[in-house]
Amino acid sequence: MTEIISGTDSTRSPHARAHHAIRRMHRALLIAGTAAPLAPLPRPSSSLRARRAFNKPLSRASAVLGSDPSWPGLSEVEVNRARAETPAYCDDGDVAHFNSAGSSPPPKPVLDAQLEYLAVEANLGGYETAELSKRELRRPYAELATMLGCERDEIAITQSATSAWQLAFSSLERTFARGDRVLVARAEYASNYIAYLQASERTGVVVEVIPSDAYGQVDADALDATLSDASKGKCRLVSIVHVPTSSGLVNDAVAIGAVAKKHGVPYLLDACQSVGQMPVNVNEIGCDFLCGTGRKYLRGPRGIGFLYARGETVEAMNLVPAYMDLHGATWEETETYEPAEGAKRFEQYEVSFAAKVGLGAAVAYANAIGVDTGWRRTRYLAETLRVGLRDVKRVVVHDQGEVQCGIVTFTVGGVSPFDVRRRLARDGVKVWTSNVKNNTKLEHEREEGTPEVVVRASVHYFNTEEEIGRLIASAGGARLGKNPDIVTSTLRFLYSLFLLLEASTSSTRKKKD
After folding, report:
1. Among 370, 365, 362, which Cα is nearest to 75's?
2. pTM given for the model
3. pLDDT per residue over 276-318, tens digit each?
4. Residue 390 lies in a domain
5. pLDDT tens digits for 110-128?
6. In DSSP terms, which residues pair with 289 in a beta bridge?
7. What three-state secondary structure class fits 106?
8. Using alpha carbons only, what angle is made at residue 138 by residues 135 and 139, rounded to the nearest 5 degrees?
9. Same domain, 161 and 235
10. What gap in Å lies between CA 23 and CA 300, rounded to an integer?
11. What sections of 181-337 are H helices per DSSP?
12. Within a domain: residue 6?
């Protein structure tokens, strides 16, 4: 990266170098007609946004960004290796992929594992291949147990994250009675909320939304207060989305878990967007159930998901899903059945076996990369993208949260999000759109003027600073082929911003010491 700042006066302070680089970037964007007036850059001592975003841990139990001298995570060699192992970059290296929150491009070991399984299956037959592939089919249980910090028999493999969530929820619904409460987050995903409404119709349970704090995340103190309110119905479940689909917000899963445990209430965590992106440990979080998918930040196959089910909770409450098959239970007598031990009772026999093998390869790949180091790089890139987008004329970044993740959402004034997506695609930058009004309806109704649809750029560790620069320039309407200096100036800005934030982090550490 040293060549990016060649020609910069090395005697300047990190803050001065960052300020100088930002001014250069701004001049380039002004030439292209895409920049708004540039506000003065705050000094590190007063940059609350920088300190909060880069020094605050994801949770009480997670690694603190900036505490590792190798920050921001993966080295250039490791990033280049990951990209070389990704067919999407090998086959079309000019395309930048920013849709890991939808379906991330898989690495070659994941693709190879599935293709090899399918090739054998086509020749030997489905049952015979499954019998010969027991080790490969056991792999996702072992790798997920390592990643999540649990036992293998607490993992169930399912058809999707939604099916995993529904299986867990249906087992708890059997405990609901009229007037009982289910406490949920304001940023709840539509599929989950529809299930709450259906449960309310069937059982009379009351769906109560936990208030959000000033940052838009679940207010753990408000959760504690409502659980302590004896005038309200008994709370049967706390159900939270860790990271919503339409925002970079990260709910403090650990704080929520501590409150749920204090009151003895089961805790279901939808970690669809967080597993693979950031460190997630079920014991540190304290959840009883956790669901996830293969296709997003784990970089695995579509059509496969998983469920963590805490063994002691399942056993103590005798929880079983609403419907089981002969894989999740045995037909003991004519009138009786026996649920399988552990999380297996939440499984059904028929899933895509090739996808199951691919999931094992994807989680193993993520474990080898190191989720914690990948998370540091992802946050660095995402915050760099937010800072750059905020400097572009007519661009509004919509992410909430005291801690924000790799999902970056924005709109461009006067331009449809769908047209922005097409413009980015024209410049070789793949993003997606997210329907806030439909996907996270309560968030859309939270504040007047919240856009119905946003552009969603979801950053992952394999993205590069050059790709971030292309996204920023293209979002502002720049024709990249005609403005090559924009990307270069953007890159200088990005690296200098990193120096600024690193200096701010070091200064904060010294003060603490």
Report:
1. 370
2. 0.81
3. 999 999 999 999 999 999 999 999 999 999 999 999 999 999 9
4. yes
5. 999 999 999 999 999 999 9
6. 268, 309
7. coil
8. 90
9. yes
10. 41
11. 190-203, 220-228, 253-262, 282-285, 311-317
12. no
